[in-house]
UniProtKB/TrEMBL annotation:
GO CC list: trans-Golgi network; TRAPPII protein complex
Residue intervals of the Trafficking protein particle complex II-specific subunit 65 IgD1 domain: 2-150
GO terms of biological process kind: intra-Golgi vesicle-mediated transport; protein-containing complex assembly
Xref: Pfam families: IgD1_Trs65, IgD2_Trs65
The organism of origin for this protein: Henningerozyma blattae (strain ATCC 34711 / CBS 6284 / DSM 70876 / NBRC 10599 / NRRL Y-10934 / UCD 77-7)
Protein's recorded name: Uncharacterized protein
Composition-biased stretches (Acidic residues): 142-170
Location of the region described as Disordered in the Swiss-Prot/TrEMBL record: 129-197
Length: 607
């Protein structure tokens, strides 16, 4: 028995040699690809095959299991037409991969090693072996009969004497005759759905198939030849990869009575691992032929309907996605506000290719609890994988999923409350070194508190501003310049006038407040001795002074609202060591004189 998973999707099922050659080319499986799977065995007159189980595993999860051929379609036998070798060929049904195998999330796109295993367990027996065994048994019986004839004369003399004893031993009333053949036959040929047992020979297929016609069943007299079966199995393993990282973001725009839904996708880390291991790091690309974003109507489950929505910015198909590409497609959906009725026949916005009047009802009443469950969408992506390492090979992939449109929770008010509660404290903490909190002296607590309370009105300026280092974990050489790229996204309602500086002076940060009696959490600490203060100063001074910002006091251009800006910061590492953060790297808002720490999420190893 053989199993083939050809690499080419357009392979002809009648071309057995082409299927074998394409199977030799396959080294991996792509998640959601249009997978073809064939099982094959030659037709012989003296062979029987009985399928026990068919299983598909992904990692340690069993995805599919069957003990019959209900998941397979029988292909035509081309050997009868061409006069060549006859064989049986079954193909896995096309909807099995889409609906059962790949309808799971056990394959992740994080670059981990994922395996898919296809396993067949079956029993087989050659009839020639059983016939030889039967002839040997008959020969032994004849020899035994001859020996018995020679001993008949001697036994006749003692027959009368032992007659009574033999009669008692011939019959045991507490036992019944046992037919071993019947038990073995029923054991290796389980019942079908209709209760009948099938004994499958070379002219039939594996067991557990639908009832055959009388012409398909072999001579029942020969069934007794197949008593002892040999168990065997067939396992095929391939690494499996997911090529895309996808996400769906939804935000409500109440002023326009709409929901902005963004579909984001890019090449996954798993695809990069595939390229390194099997494609010799050559260029590959994904060609998208179809991308549908559909709004579903599940109010009538008997006849569900859907409407295709076009993206806000038109997208021409087909298009290609390479290794460093990232796409974000925006869509508009109607927003149903709480305790309101919106006529769907007259929407407040014109949605691209969205005819809302086709929905079953003309009015929809929603409540606040139903706001996030008003819409259900289906996303479909059809694309093909093309690589220079696989010439003349196009692997089609179809990804489809359904999800509810859930709105992002508004956290502005909670963030504002959290910020006010933190700044209202009398404790003003400066950057920490390791696990040691260093606070200002108790004499300046009231002054720092008044400064914080005065700046409460300006703290909201940085709530909607994002600072992100694109390379936040790097390894550099001592004495050589290195660059950290900072991305600034201004989502606030006002422009930003910023200055970036790095204060690595340890005098003020280490000597002030080391002997503070009040900790950052409000507990009282014992004052530190001068010896302890000097040890801390010597220990942490290297962590701050080991890296220097060359472009200190760097003035950025004005960043308007809803704009993004990239800036390259030039550093030099002068002391070897690992810096888990760059404490003291800050931005200053010249309009509000507010400072913001941005170096806590940067780690640098200086060698």
């Amino acid at each position: 028995m053989e199993c083939f998973v050809p690499l080419n999707d357009d392979i002809d099922a009648k071309d057995l040699q082409g299927i074998k050659d394409s199977h030799q080319l396959r080294q991996f499986i792509l998640f959601d690809e249009n997978l073809k799977l064939f099982i094959h065995w030659p037709i012989t007159k003296e062979r029987i095959l009985v399928l026990q189980s068919f299983k598909i595993w992904i990692n340690d999860t069993k995805i599919l299991e069957s003990n019959d051929l209900s998941y397979f379609d029988k292909m035509e036998n081309p050997g009868k037409e061409k006069g060549n070798e006859n064989y049986f060929l079954y193909q896995l049904k096309q909807n099995i991969c889409k609906d059962l195998i790949f309808r799971s999330s056990v394959v992740m796109n994080n670059g981990y090693n994922n395996l898919i295993k296809i396993q067949f367990n079956y029993n087989y027996r050659n009839s020639t072996d059983s016939k030889k065994s039967k002839l040997n048994n008959n020969k032994n019986e004849i020899e035994e009969e001859e020996e018995e004839d020679d001993n008949d004369e001697d036994e006749d003399e003692d027959e009368d004497e032992n007659k009574d004893e033999d009669d008692e031993q011939d019959y045991l009333p507490s036992f019944e005759p046992v037919n071993l053949w019947n038990d073995n036959r029923h054991k290796h040929n389980p019942r079908t759905d209709n209760g009948s047992r099938q004994y499958l020979f070379s002219s039939t297929s594996l067991s557990h198939i639908p009832p055959q016609t009388p012409s398909d069943i072999s001579n029942p007299d020969l069934n007794e030849d197949f008593v002892n079966f040999t168990s065997s199995y067939l396992n095929i393993e391939f690494p499996i990869y997911s090529l895309l990282s996808m996400r769906l973001r939804n935000n409500s725009i109440k002023s326009l009575l709409c929901i902005y839904s963004s579909l984001d996708f890019q090449i996954s880390k798993s695809a990069l691992q595939l390229n390194e291991e099997f494609l010799n790091s050559e260029e590959f690309k994904l060609i998208f032929n179809k991308l549908d974003y559909q709004l579903l109507d599940n109010s009538n489950t008997s006849t569900p309907s859907h409407i295709t929505i076009n993206p806000i910015c038109p997208l021409s198909l087909p298009f290609e996605v390479s290794e460093n590409d990232s796409f974000s497609l925006g869509y508009k959906l109607p927003l149903f506000t709480s305790s309101s009725t919106i006529p769907l026949s007259q929407p407040p916005l014109s949605y691209s290719n969205l005819n809302i009047s086709n929905l079953p009802s003309n009015n929809v009443t929603s409540t606040s609890n139903q706001l996030n469950s008003q819409h259900r969408i289906r996303v479909t992506l059809n694309y093909s994988f093309v690589s220079a390492s696989l010439p003349n090979t196009l692997i089609p992939i179809s990804t489809c999923w359904e999800t509810d449109v859930t709105l992002k929770r508004n956290t502005t008010s909670s963030n504002r409350f959290r910020t006010l509660s933190q700044t209202s404290s009398l404790i003003y903490s400066v950057p920490k070194f390791g696990n040691l909190p260093i606070t200002n002296s108790s004499t300046s607590l009231l002054q720092n508190s008044s400064m914080n309370n005065a700046s409460n009105n300006n703290l909201n300026r940085f709530l909607n501003v994002k600072f992100k280092f694109l390379n936040n974990n790097i390894k550099v050489t001592k004495g050589k310049r290195f660059i950290l790229r900072l991305q600034i996204i201004n989502l606030s309602n006002s422009a930003l006038d910023l200055v970036i500086y790095y204060n690595n002076n340890t005098n003020n940060q280490l000597t002030n407040g080391i002997s503070s009696p009040i900790n950052a959490n409000g507990s009282i600490n014992k004052p530190l001795s001068l010896d302890k203060q000097y040890q801390f100063h010597k220990k942490f001074s290297n962590l701050i002074e080991g890296i220097i910002l060359k472009s200190n006091d760097f003035k950025l251009p004005l960043i308007n609202s809803n704009e993004s800006y990239f800036v390259d910061l030039n550093f030099i590492g002068i002391i070897s060591g690992y810096y888990s953060s760059l404490n003291g790297l800050k931005v200053l808002d010249l309009q509000s004189n507010e400072m913001f720490e941005i170096g806590n999420n940067v780690s640098v190893l200086v060698q």
